[in-house]
Design a protein that fits this description.
Layout (H helix, E strand, L loop, with lengths): L25 H4 L8 E5 L5 E6 L5 E7 L13 H8 L12 H6 L9 E5 L4 E7 L5 H13 L5 H18 L6 H9 L13 H5 L3 H11 L5 E7 L3 H12 L22 E5 L6 E11 L5 H27 L6 E9 L2 E10 L4 H18 L3 H16 L1 H7 L2 H11 L9 H14 L2 H13 L8 E6 L8 H13 L23 E8 L2 E6 L4 E6 L6 E8 L11 H14 L6 H10 L3 E6 L4 E8 L3 H13 L5 H20 L1 H13 E3 L8 H4 L4 H12 L6 E6 L3 H12 L16 E2 L4 E8 L4 E10 L8 H25 L7 E5 L6 E10 L4 H18 L3 H15 L6 H13 L5 H4 L1 H5 L4 H12 L4 E9 L2
Parallel strand pairs: 2-6, 7-11, 14-19, 21-25
Antiparallel strand pairs: 1-2, 3-5, 3-6, 4-5, 8-10, 8-11, 9-10, 12-13, 13-14, 15-17, 15-19, 16-17, 18-20, 22-24, 22-25, 23-24
Helix pairs in contact: 2-8, 4-9, 10-11, 10-12, 10-15, 11-16, 11-17, 12-15, 12-19, 18-21, 18-24, 20-25, 26-27, 26-28, 26-32
């Protein structure tokens, strides 16, 4: 089931409040006309279909059945979901073959390209095809889903284990606080039951019982087909008719599913899972989700804007006041016909009173005094840019995005807009959203938070017995929120970065091929430019440095974990973090740092018009980072608390024990205890910054966009060639020695009844080992093959685990590699699971990889890499990585040539190297406590 509540990243913005925009004018009431680019049809048997033709795009397909757990009777709990599982077993037309394997041989990847889902009132089956070639095959499977599932007794019995595995995975003993919120919201609906069913209903399922549900609800008039991508509309309509017109099944008409009835109780105490934080979550119902008029769309845009402003303000103030809030998130989604907004704030339990008071006071400030002009200008920049490039942005939506919009409209009152209508609403929105209107809406909606008859409060505590303080906490929060807010000193304009006074020099420029250029700069930086018309008005950069944590002085390892957050919060170029966020927003530029074990860098996304700003930002980030002692103190405090909590958590205990067992010598790979970070100094962090950002480490800048070299050259002189980079006089390599003796760990630390089983296969990597682009491709293909075998053996044949996983930890330029087998199993199946894993490894080590497996993995990898040819961000990232670690960069531009070099022999060599009998092994079993 799709979860409606989810954690967002630091820069993601969600929905918080239902917004004003109460105008009753005729324009706002205008009904949205259906997008004429959609073609709709219906067969004589009642099955509907929706087609959208888009050139040069993959083909997305969804076969939707308007039935889920809501249609189950008391004896059928979980049957809708179980039936979905059976669609991948033997069917009438595809015959006696595993459907997963069948589509994988076409190059599709299980989970990503072929999957199915069940929810409260719908079940849907999805396929992603690279082109229209295999559309008849896709329709063949969908028709088998419709009325061709064979439901053989032996296959139903064998699938019980997989469904029980999913039950353990999706419904653990310790539920996330967001899952608990969802459960509380539907608690007053006695007819609602879990989509997965119960353990008893799953274990007692029979083919006859499944067939009863199947024939009752899978009938033509209860289904719809969505197809989006590059195809011929006339041909596809004929194919749909050919495959589905003979389907004559009849069933019961599905009653309209009404939105859930919300609980009468408005305050709820939750218990946070061990190792996670306490939280305050405020949830406000927004009514039934719909988008039927211009006014609905206008309000949707206004909601997004207010969300951005509210979350940005709270994050800015949290840093400025050194608040102990660990995250502040505002978001919304729909859940069973209802639309909700939520504000979530996380913190350590000991900081509850302080953080809840901080949130209440800052919301009161925003309510009573509004936002400043600089805040609004920064937030509106993205809307203005979207309007300027509206036609291009509209065309840039891929098949998945378009399909998802239609899919949503099948279950919500929503009409899909045309490009012209969408632009018309955006024009009016940009024209009308001034400071006075925004502040009026903010005041109106934040005032509504005090209406405790409509607002829900969820308090997550770390201990169950703390729930007795719920009423007091809600009262204290609302009392603080009710007080008058204070006016803040707000900037009137968005700041700018100063232009560097001195320019640098370009030593050489070379054209590598028709679309690639290389510059050598006087400071040692090598710049690569990949011309890509597909990026349209967007441009992407990747600053790649071959210096990660492993190249630092061992005394600086703890400081490296604090460095990026500290430097970000400290600001640069004379601006604090709030001003920096605004200047980046105003220039539609996103800068994301990364620090790995063996490299670091910056990923930048911007637009052509803002490329000078992005280059200037790169310059200042690399030259003017300073540590603010106040911010370091706060970062240390939060990090020490987080690490201490993690150390006590089940997974913290497991990974610490595994790490200590694996590493015989090598301080770089230690998991540092929480107390270590308390001793990090300003100078330590500053030294990390200098060692990683201000020294020569084979630094490379990759630029990708629809540009000309002449556009780039002056910017390189002005902003990049003048970045001072000191010579690196202390080239280091991480020291690491692995424990050779096999180790078996039994760790009774889990709060779950299920058992976790991990097997680590680790191998040292010699400094002399030359890794090629072909090896990187082969490693990817090998992991695909072993995952497919694990799926077929551990889930399909033995029914031991719903999602067995083979994870590769193979860092570029790393000192050692690890391949990890991960299972979630029933305790009674532990011995059998170990035997099955041994069987899996024996097959890889002794029987090797087959030609068919190689060909399947090659098709999958080629299809997964195909979109990179149009994706500027991914091209920049991969080119930076390949250039830095000595792989042939041509593999980024022409991956197929390198995939073709991966033979069965190469795959078996990689299997021997990564998973051979010589591997150092650690077997860890995570058992329930006690």
């Amino acid at each position: 089931m799709k979860q409606w509540l989810r954690l967002c990243g630091f820069l993601l913005v969600g929905l918080f409040l239902l917004v004003g925009c109460q105008q009753d004018g005729q324009w706002y009431a205008t009904t949205i006309k259906s997008d004429p680019d959609w073609q709709h049809g219906q067969l004589e048997n009642g099955m509907k279909y929706h087609l959208y033709q888009k050139d040069d795009e993959a083909v997305e397909l969804r076969f939707v059945v308007h039935a889920g757990s809501a249609q189950e009777n008391e004896q059928q709990h979980g049957y809708a979901h179980f039936l979905e599982h059976m669609s991948f077993k033997d069917t009438t037309q595809l015959g006696q073959q595993d459907v997963w394997q069948f589509f994988e041989r076409l190059g599709l990847s299980a989970g990503a390209d072929i999957n199915a889902y069940t929810s409260y009132n719908q079940t849907w089956y999805q396929l992603t095809l690279p082109d229209s070639t295999d559309l008849p095959t896709a329709f063949t499977w969908f028709r088998d889903v419709a009325d061709g599932m064979l439901l053989k007794p032996e296959q139903v019995d064998s699938e019980i284990g997989a469904v029980m595995g999913e039950y353990r995975l999706r419904l653990p003993q310790e539920r996330s606080i967001y899952s608990q919120v969802e459960a509380r919201l539907r608690a007053d609906n006695t007819s609602y039951h879990e989509v997965l069913g119960t353990k008893q209903s799953i274990q007692s399922v029979t083919p006859a019982a499944l067939k009863d549900y199947y024939q009752r609800w899978y009938f033509p008039a209860n289904t719809e087909l969505v197809v989006v991508g590059d195809f011929d509309a006339t041909t596809i309509e004929a194919q749909i008719a050919q495959h589905f017109s003979s389907w004559l099944g009849q069933g019961q008409k599905v009653a309209n599913i009404e939105p859930i009835q919300l609980p009468s109780q408005k305050a709820h105490a939750l218990v946070a899972p061990e190792g996670t934080e306490s939280a305050l979550i405020i949830v406000k119902p927004l009514g039934e989700a719909q988008r039927l008029t211009y006014g609905d769309q206008f309000r949707s845009l206004e909601v997004d804007l207010l969300n951005h402003l509210i979350q940005a303000r709270l994050l800015d103030r949290s840093i400025a006041l050194a608040s102990n809030a660990s995250y502040v998130e505002a978001y919304a989604d729909t859940f069973e016909g209802q639309k909700f907004s939520a504000l979530a704030v996380g913190f350590k339990e000991k900081h509850r009173a302080e953080v809840q008071d901080f949130v209440a006071k800052e919301l009161a400030n925003l309510r009573d005094h509004g936002i400043g002009q600089a805040e609004l200008a920064a937030a509106m920049a993205s809307y203005q840019t979207n309007l300027k490039n509206h036609a291009e942005n509209w065309k840039a939506d891929d098949s998945w995005v378009i399909t998802d919009s239609m899919f949503t409209s099948l279950f919500e009152p929503r009409t899909l807009m045309s490009e012209a209508e969408h632009k018309a609403v955006l024009v009016r929105f940009v024209a009308e959203m001034d400071q006075a209107r925004v502040n009026k809406s903010l005041k109106q909606q934040l005032t509504q938070l005090l209406d405790q008859q409509a607002t829900y409060y969820f308090m997550a505590y770390t201990k169950a017995e703390q729930s007795q303080q719920l009423a007091q906490d809600v009262q204290l929060f609302t009392q603080s929120l009710a007080k008058s807010g204070h006016a803040l000193m707000l900037a009137k304009t968005v700041s700018v970065f100063p232009t560097p006074a001195r320019k640098g020099k370009i030593l050489s420029e070379q054209q590598v091929d028709d679309t690639t250029w290389v510059w050598q700069l006087s400071n040692g930086v090598e710049v690569w430019f990949q011309q890509m018309p597909e990026t349209k008005q967007n441009a992407y950069m990747n600053w790649a440095v071959k210096a990660g944590r492993s190249q630092l002085d061992p005394a600086l390892y703890p400081a490296s974990e604090l460095a990026f957050e500290t430097l970000y919060r400290s600001g640069f170029a004379g601006l604090d973090v709030a001003a920096i966020e605004k200047v980046f927003s105003a220039n539609n530029t996103l800068l994301t740092p990364y620090l790995n074990d063996y490299d670091n860098g910056l990923s930048i996304a911007t637009q052509h018009d803002n490329l000078p700003f992005a280059m200037s930002a790169l310059h200042h980030v690399l030259t003017e980072g300073k540590v603010d002692p106040v911010q370091l103190k706060q970062v240390k405090k939060q990090y020490v608390e987080d690490r201490a909590e993690y150390e006590r958590s089940p997974w913290g205990l497991v990974l610490k024990k595994v790490n200590d067992s694996l590493i015989a010598r090598g301080t770089f790979y230690n998991i540092w205890p929480s107390k270590t970070f308390a001793g990090v100094t300003d100078n330590d962090v500053q030294q990390v910054y200098q060692d990683l950002f201000q020294q020569q480490h084979h630094n490379r800048l990759v630029i990708v966009g629809d540009l000309q070299p002449a556009d780039i050259t002056p910017l390189l002189r002005q902003y990049v060639a003048n970045i001072p980079l000191a010579a690196n006089e202390h080239e280091r390599s991480a020291v690491v020695e692995l424990n050779k003796a096999p180790q078996v760990l039994e760790l009774p630390v889990s709060n779950e009844k299920s058992v976790g089983y991990l097997l680590f296969l680790s191998n040292p990597v010699s400094d002399e080992t030359k890794v090629l682009a072909t090896d990187v491709m082969a490693q990817d293909m090998l992991l695909r093959i072993v995952n497919q075998r694990a799926f077929q053996l551990l889930r399909g044949q033995y029914g031991l685990s719903y999602a067995p996983s083979i994870i590769g930890d193979i860092p570029d330029s790393g000192a050692y590699s690890s391949v990890i087998v991960s299972l979630n199993i029933d305790k009674k199946d532990l011995a059998k699971s170990k035997q099955a894993v041994a069987e899996l490894l024996k097959g890889v080590q002794q029987e090797g990889i087959t030609q068919q497996e190689r060909d399947t993995a090659a098709k999958q990898l080629a299809l997964d890499l195909k979109p990179m040819a149009k994706n500027g961000a991914e091209t920049a990232r991969f080119m930076g990585r390949y250039l830095l670690h000595g792989y042939d960069v041509e593999a980024v531009k022409n991956p197929q040539r390198f995939i073709d070099k991966v033979t069965v022999e190469v795959l078996n060599q990689q299997a021997s190297s990564l998973m051979g009998k010589q591997s150092y092994t650690i077997e860890a079993t995570i058992l329930p406590k006690g």
